Amino acid sequence: MLILVRSIIFNVLFYLNTLFLLLLALPTFFLPYRAIIWVATTWGRINLFLLRVVVGVRVEVRGAEKIPKGSLLVAAKHQSAWETFALLPLFDNPVFIVKRELQWIPIFGWLMIKGRMVPVDRSAGAQALNAMAERARIELADNRQLIIFPEGTRRPAGAEPRYKFGVAHLYAAGGVPCVPVALNSGLFWPRRSLRRIPGTVVVEILDPIPPGLDKMAFFKRLQSDIETATARLIEEGRSEIAARG
Fold first, then answer.
1. What is the tens place of the pLDDT at every residue in 125-140?
2. H/E element, 180
3. What would the pLDDT profile of 83-108 be if each residue is shown by its tens digit?
4. Is 230 within 8 Å of 182 (Cβ atoms)?
5. Are 174 and 140 in contact (CB under 8 A)?
6. pLDDT tier at 73 (50, 70, 90 boundaries)?
7. CB count in 10 Å sphere of residue 195
8. What angle do CA 37, 41, 42 make, to 5 degrees?
9. What is the pLDDT at residue 214?
10. Cα–Cα distance, 157 to 165 (Å, whole number)
11. 27, 31, 33, 36: CA torsion to nearest 10
12. What is the rounded CA–CA span in Å between residue 109 and residue 121?
């Protein structure tokens, strides 16, 4: 019962923080795009603080020293809404691959456009991949860290992976290192649930994959690296939750 109450309090504060930062971000329409990136990163940091103080969800980042400088492709496991804000502070100039429909949301979507997020039209097939790759090249040329969730949507912790080949297309087109990211956020911020479970979300930065590999070789290595590390982190997280009772 206490966890549910604390979760509700956090959720209220989360949405109030989001509304406040959206309003704070309005003047950035008239500033360089890095201004909205600063606001978004601040939003992420405040959410992490609220999670720790209100709910007791902490974060441990492993392997941050492995992140190369400059432009990157970042391929992260996607288990909850947590990583949509919590990964932002890890990078200097992040940009997300996002569903095109998100840009239609008033204010929020407009700010995504201002931040030069890379949209993808999932209904357009190969044409969408080519358009996404072209936009990605533009952002990577500006020393940005392009974050993609290779499965395309959230998957419950421990669920069978469903990686999409689009990440290999981006890798080949971008010509930059790819940093795989494993995590266990879904144990503590379950998808489609109000409950936030006390414990430690672990994010593990894995060894970068250099550019130049064959698409299929890259795709298989990426999935193997992320899934192997994620399975270990999920087991670790479940042990912590069990120990807490």
1. 677 778 888 999 999 9
2. strand 178-183
3. 999 999 999 999 999 888 888 888 88
4. yes
5. yes
6. very high
7. 15
8. 115
9. 96
10. 21
11. -30
12. 15
Name 148's bridge partners: 75
pLDDT at position 119 is 86
Model confidence pLDDT, tens digit, residues 166-203: 999 999 999 999 999 999 999 999 988 999 999 999 99
* Backbone angle region of 199, left / alpha / beta, with phi > 0 → left and psi within -120 to 50 → alpha: left
51 Cβ partners below 8 Å, 6+ apart?
Answer: 10, 57, 58, 196
Query: Token pair of 113, please?
Result: 């456009």
User: Are 144 and 95 a contacting pair, CB within 8 Å?
Assistant: yes
Locate the domains of the chain by residue range. 2-244
Task: Give the separation between CA 157 and CA 45, rounded to whole angstroms.
Answer: 23
Quickly list DSSP for 187-231: GTS-TT-S----EEEEEEEPPPBPTT--HHHHHHHHHHHHHHHHH
Q: Which run of H or E residues covers position 172?
A: helix 166-174
pTM attached to this predicted model: 0.93
Q: What is the pairing mode between strands 145-148 and 94-99?
A: parallel
- Record the tokens describing residue 104, joined without a space: 């239609």
Phi first, then psi: what are they for 144, rounded to 5°? -100, 160
Task: Write phi, then psi, for 197 (nearest 5 degrees).
Answer: -95, 125
pLDDT in tens, 12-36: 999 999 999 999 999 999 999 999 9
Q: Under CATH, which architecture does the 2-244 domain have?
A: 3-Layer(aba) Sandwich (3.40)
Q: Which two tokens stand for residue 201?
A: 């979300």
Count how many residues are written for the chain: 245
